[in-house]
Amino acid sequence: MSSDKNNKGDKIRETKKKLKKTAADLIDRAKTYRAFDRWRTSPVKEESRKEVLSTHYFDIDLVSLEAENIGHFARYVLRENDGDTVAVLAITDDGRIPLVEQYRIPNHSWTLEIPAGHAVKKNERPLDVARRKLRDEAGYEADNFDQFLRFVNTPSFSTQHTVIYRATGLKEVDRTMIGPESPVSNVRLVSLNDAYDMVLNGTIVDAKSVIAIQHEHLMMVENDRI
């Protein structure tokens, strides 16, 4: 009898131990870990800010600052207007990605990019921008849009952020002219593997497109779909 009681007691203790471990694991997973604190105290103090250029897409400020080690100094800061830049990684039913040929004046070269752009109205939401840019630039509408990434483009001098949507359930529609710098702009349908190879060999150099394609390729590999 005492042996049975001891065995029963051991089982209860083991069950409690497992429950505690499970609870601890759940609590541990629920915690937000911050190995690097982006929001710790600033090492510089902003003294003044003056707008020196205003455009539709961005403004430029001249910011006066003070640091303990060097005293006063100044920086130019580019502020993005009307919210984040919005990009769309669209995927057809047969697994191809529409990439838009665009001529980029600052670098005097053609690029292959996923559709992207900015709000044209103050109240235009990121999802509305995603729908519009996918339709106008790539010639598709989509049943499903899922935002999967947001990043800072050039944190050294700009406030610009980019959000990326994954669009599926595509249907072809008429495109519109995307800009005077690209009067003849083709859309290339490229498989994910080919797009990934184009990233690695330097054919695709646009940052948002590189990030989106690498992310999608990684997800496919982790889910054993490649």
Q: Main attributes?
A:
flat; Nucleoside Triphosphate Pyrophosphohydrolase; alpha+beta; 3-stranded antiparallel sheet; 226 residues
Structure description:
Helix 3 crosses helix 4. The strands form 3 sheets. Strands 7-4-9-8 form a 4-stranded mixed beta sheet, sandwiched between helices. A 3-stranded antiparallel beta sheet has the order 1-2-3, with no helix packed on it. Helix content is 30%, strand content 37%. It is built from 4 helices and 10 strands. It has 226 residues and is α+β, with helices and mostly antiparallel strands.
Brief summary:
The protein is an alpha+beta fold and 226 residues long.
Topology:
Blueprint: H1 2-30, E1 44-54, E2 58-67, E3 71-80, E4 85-90, E5 96-104, E6 109-113, E7 116-117, H2 126-138, E8 140-152, E9 161-172, E10 187-191, H3 192-200, H4 207-222
Parallel strand pairs: 4-9
Antiparallel strand pairs: 1-2, 2-3, 4-7, 5-6, 5-10, 8-9
Any idea what the radius of gyration is?
Answer: 25 Å
Looking at CATH, the homologous superfamily of the largest domain is Nucleoside Triphosphate Pyrophosphohydrolase
What gross morphology would you assign? flat
Number of strands: 10
Cα distance spanning the termini: 59 Å
- Class by SSE composition: alpha+beta
CATH architecture of the largest domain: Alpha-Beta Complex
DSSP summary: helix tally: 4
Order of helices and strands: HEEEEEEEHEEEHH
Average pLDDT figure: 89
Task: Point out poorly predicted stretches.
Answer: none
Topology-level CATH name of the largest domain = Nucleoside Triphosphate Pyrophosphohydrolase
Number of domains: 3
Strand content: 35-45%
Would you state the CATH class of the largest domain?
A: Alpha Beta
- How can the largest sheet be summarized? 4 strands, mixed
Q: Percent helix among the residues?
A: 25-40%
What strand line-up does the widest sheet have?
A: 7-4-9-8
